[in-house]
Amino acid sequence: MQQIELQESEETLNLRKIIGKYLSKWPWFVGFIFLFLIVAYIYLRYSVPQYQSTTTLKFDKKQNDITGALADLDNLGLGLGNADELKSEVAVVTSRPILMKVVENLNLNVQYYNSGEIKDSELFTKIPITAKVISYNDDKKFISSEYIVKEVNGNNFILETEEKTDVKGSFDKVLKLNFGTVILQKTPGLSFRSKYKIVFWNPLEKVKKLEKKIQVNLPDQKAMLMNISLVGTVSEKSEAILNEVTKQYNLDGLKDKNLQAQNTQEFIDKRLEVITRDLSGVENQKEDFQNRNRIVDLQAQAQLALQNTSDNTKALLLQQTQLDLLNSLQTEASKGGNQIMPSNLGLNPSLEQAISQYNTLLISRNKTLKQATMENPAVVEMNKEITSLKEIVRDNIRQQKATMEASIAQLNGQISTSTGMIEKVPGQSKVYRGIERQQNLKEQLFLFLLQKREENAINLSVNVPKAKIVNPAFTEDIPVSPKKSLVLLGAIVLGVLIPFAIFYFFFMWDDKIYSRYDITDRTSLGVLADIPSLKDEENHLVQKNDFSELAEAFRVLVSNLKFVLPSKDLAKVVMVTSSVKGEGKTLVSVNLALTLGNKNGRSLLIGSDIRNPQIQRYDNEPIKRKGLTEYLYDESINIEDLILTSDTNPNCDVIYAGSIPPNPQELLSNGRYKKLIDQVRPNYAYIVIDSAPLMLVSDTLNIADTADATLYVVRSGVSRNILIDFANGLVKESKLSNVSFVINDVSKNAGGYGYGYNYGYGYGYSSEKKKTWWQKIFKS
């Protein structure tokens, strides 16, 4: 016999198999999609559509490059400085004070509805009966209260509370309710409908709702644009709210601007008073400083003193030089004897003249002495005159020297006076500059405040809105909720995902075998054929000249079986077994024997499941006959007496199991079964053994060595993966040899890899009840 080596199979991801599993459940997916589409239709039919309303504001940007008198116009509140300031305005738009004004002005704390059977329709315009809250009993604890206008009779009406109690009242008259005091008014020209509902809210609660519903975004910060949007069921109400929000926002901005301008005006007036006093004090201080220091122009006077000092210093140097000359000349004049004195020294003319006469007379005397003696009367006379002139020179030098010293003393005094004045200039200049600085600062501040007062007066007179309304509130035609396409798509997605999730967990825990790929994933043993699923009304036996799907499947099985069986002249023995009862082992055995039997070689089917015989179920006239059991325990029985020819195929013989014995295992192991096989081998081409299930009893293992090949039958959708492991164990332990699998009852879409002949899903010899059409469609 051919032995097939068992190899461990590796787990691989088979996407086709995985996808096929889900595709086989397509009716469930279609059913869920259809169900969710119905739910989506009902939701779209009765849900209240939500529409988005939007308004756009544009802010002016402050101009920081302007010059002249408007260079400091930033504090006037016109425009925004940058994108960061624009971001801060987002919080201002949705601030509670502004929203509270919106609620009060539009009376949003009262809502009106026309009640329907399923949904209520909110009213905002054309309201037949309006209400206004005069006061609240406790506005902190109160949230909302609902009333239905039950009856209107002339000027009287009846309200039904949430507790189903009636409250009577009259229009245009104060009515006390459980939460406060209200007044109802009837709109002329509008008829009243039944089930008219009025809901009173705490204004703060409506403000909270508006805070959540109003969305503010900045589409382009550089362009200084702001979009304010609101989603609601009534477009007129949403537009009115947005328009009121922008109105209150601009009024709030104008109020802030005027308040700022008024505060600025008061501040400027106060500062002007202070600056005027300070400026007057600085000017008086400057005047007093000039009077005390006899200063008209400090810089000019300092320049003049510096010039005088320079001139006096030059004159002093000249006088010092002449005084030195006089001292030298006096020294010469004081010497004894008569000698020539220096002349032409730039001294006083009278002194120069006296020295010149003295020198001339001295020179003349010296010439005379060359010709006469000292006693010469003429020389004596000249000496007297020389002595007299020399004395005159000395007197003149003394006079000149005294005059020169007096002049030097005077110059030194003038230089000292000028130097003192110059030394005072830095200190005086410092004090003077400080006084002038204070004066200039006060004057500039005074002029600046005067300018700002005029600019502020202009700002008070100009009522420019904080933001320009580029687009007044408008509503999109397409509702934002519910979105029909999105809801339908969501229904389809849910219709796919929910059954997918269900089947995912089902497949995750499902350990049943559905197709050959479930087997090949767990073992290296081959799968010879897929036997299609049969309906109850279909024939479960392969007939002569049969071209049904069942016959084709067994022809495939026979063709593949020939590659497994060894080549021999005697009959080839094929044992058909399974793990447990009900997997179709007998069906495969019977039809395999019918298919193998032909004119070229007969086939023999031996019913070897003597514990639970099943072959006789396929007889046209099932009767109790002797069979294998009788042969095994009674040696006198002849084999030819047990062999019967099939009514379906005359080339196929059958040996039935016979009576159910009390000791089947002993009978199968007593050696007569092998003797039976040996006796019938020469007469047949194929012998098919219908054996007992392996997992329940060990009978089959006693006769397994007689088989050339073993067909292990598993039933699609019934057999579990653990049975494959059981078969692998038998092969590993060499209890079975040359084993191949046959999958029975395979539906077309079993695990995505069915037989492919568009079969139903039944098992002919079972006693199942006939299924309804929807059970057949949704069979899993």
UniProtKB/TrEMBL annotation:
Ranges of residues in domain AAA: 572-709
Provide the catalytic activity annotation: L-tyrosyl-[protein] + ATP = O-phospho-L-tyrosyl-[protein] + ADP + H(+)
**Chief localisation class:** membrane
- Could you tell me what this protein is called? non-specific protein-tyrosine kinase
Q: What class of enzyme is it?
A: transferase
Enzyme Commission number, as recorded: 2.7.10.2
Q: Which family does it belong to?
A: Belongs to the etk/wzc family.
Any idea where the Polysaccharide chain length determinant N-terminal domain is?
A: 12-106
